[in-house]
């Protein structure tokens, strides 16, 4: 149904319960596609990118074991019919990707997060979020 265009993310899944699971899955695939260049350039990997809906209202994302699993909130806490803005979820994803390298929210963390934001902004504005990411092979002589 949806194609994963990011070779640095192994699996993508939305919650089966709740309204609009296909819209949530579509958003996750879109986010995966958008960060493909950044992930490739910074050698970032995610095994499982998944939606979650925690009870803790201010919890927007979680990185488990440095990218083994990244969980993102896609629905508003008090209204699961209302999806979060994709740009804000993208920023949460960038935040969680920083946790692949840095655990605590210290100065280094915030500096790298800002660097990822700048890279992502440049990639999106240049249309580089889905460039060729495979291993090149020379053709011909």
TrEMBL record:
PROSITE patterns: WLM (PS51397). GO terms for biological process: DNA repair. Residues 1-141 form the WLM domain. GO terms for molecular function: metallopeptidase activity. Pfam families: WLM (PF08325). InterPro entries: WLM_dom, WSS1-like_metalloprotease. GO terms for cellular component: nucleus. It comes from the Eukaryota. This is WLM-domain-containing protein.
């Amino acid at each position: 149904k949806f194609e994963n265009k990011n070779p640095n993310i192994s699996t993508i899944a939305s919650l089966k319960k709740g309204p609009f699971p296909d819209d949530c899955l579509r958003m996750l695939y879109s986010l995966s596609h958008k960060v493909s260049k950044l992930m490739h350039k910074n050698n970032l990997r995610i095994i499982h990118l998944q939606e979650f809906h925690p009870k803790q209202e201010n919890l927007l994302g979680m990185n488990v074991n440095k990218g083994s699993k990244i969980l993102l909130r896609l629905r508003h806490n008090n209204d699961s019919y209302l999806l979060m803005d994709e740009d804000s979820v993208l920023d949460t994803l960038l935040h969680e990707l920083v946790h692949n390298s840095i655990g605590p929210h210290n100065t280094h963390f915030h500096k790298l997060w800002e660097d990822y934001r700048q890279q992502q902004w440049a990639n999106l504005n240049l249309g580089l979020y889905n460039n060729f990411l495979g291993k090149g092979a020379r053709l011909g002589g």
